[in-house]
Amino acid sequence: MTGADLPLWAAWLVVALVLAGAGFSLTGALGLVRLKTFYERVHAPTLGATLGTALILCGSMLLLSAIEGRLVLRDALIGLFLTVTTPVTLLVLARAAAHRDRHEGHSGAPPKP
Asked: Which CA distances in Å does 44 have to 8, 50, 69, 72, 108?
């Protein structure tokens, strides 16, 4: 594949979507490094990864659809799995950390529901 058969407008749109998605993912990663507590850190990568993944997958679907000349939606399954599993992972990690902090008697532990 040389990319010669890809229209210029599609190439620019793919680049814009992928760069925007990478920017959101980078923002989430920087939030992971910059925030102080676990409970603050757990939100930034989750939000950045979800939106970043969605934009990158949209760019991928557009690229494949433009190259193949038909609508290609197989990358949407990746988005579906990541959209479902990322918030569930966040919830499980936060609950496990809250349980541990309450059990160990940390002063910053969230109250019991």
From this structure: 34, 10, 37, 31, 19
- What is the domain range of residue 40? 8-104
CA 84 vs CA 39, 43, 50, 77: distances in Å: 20, 15, 10, 11
Query: According to the per-residue pLDDT averaged within each range, which of 34-48, 54-68, 94-108 is highest?
Result: 54-68
Number of domains the chain is built from: 1
pLDDT tens for 11-33 read 999 999 999 999 999 998 898 88
Cα–Cα distance measured from residue 55 to residue 111, given in angstroms and rounded to the nearest whole number? 36
Q: Is residue 83 part of a domain?
A: yes
Q: Is residue 113 part of a domain?
A: no
Minimal CA–CA distance to 44: which of 27, 22, 20, 19?
A: 27
Query: What pLDDT score was predicted for residue 89?
Result: 86
